[in-house]
Each structure stands twice: as structure tokens, then as C-alpha cells.
Fold this sequence. Notes:
Elements: E1 8-16, E2 19-26, E3 30-41, E4 46-47, E5 54-55, E6 60-64, E7 78-79, H1 80-89
Antiparallel strand pairs: 1-2, 2-3, 3-6, 4-5, 6-7
Amino acid sequence: MGSKAEPIARILDQPTAQTLIVSWCDARSGHYGYQTWRAVVACVPGICVLTGRSIKVGDAIYKPRVLGSAPANADAMICAKSVGTIKQRN
């Protein structure tokens, strides 16, 4: 009780240097089995959902692509520096 469930995010593929395919599951924002994330520059500080590292304004990140209405996890971020490290472990 009272514990904060963290989202489970996993990189499935990196079709281009500018995109990731991510599997996302979270009790609050739902499940996206095959979600495209795009490379952008962070406009606000945040936390990498894969590593828990701090993200600063200006850092290279990936965010869920928004087509039409924003997905529930639209504010989530993956630090671009973490992508190579995570892919090597998978």
C-alpha cells in the first residue's frame, strides 16, 4: 500500500537514429505495445524512464510521438545517451 508503481518501458527497436519503438506499460497511463518515440531536445527537466537519471533542459532525449491526441505518457522521456547502453544489455 502506498508504493508508487513505476512504468515499465523497454526498447524494442531503433529503426532510425531519430526513432525508437518502445513497449510501455503503466497502471496510470496504460499500455502501448509498439509505440514510436522520436528524438527531440528536452524543453523541461525530467527523469529518464529507463535509467532514472536526471534530464536537463537541452539534453538529447526521445519522447512519444504525438499524432492527433497526445498519448497518456506524452511527457515521458528517455535520455538519448542511455539508448546505446540499454540496447547492449538486451
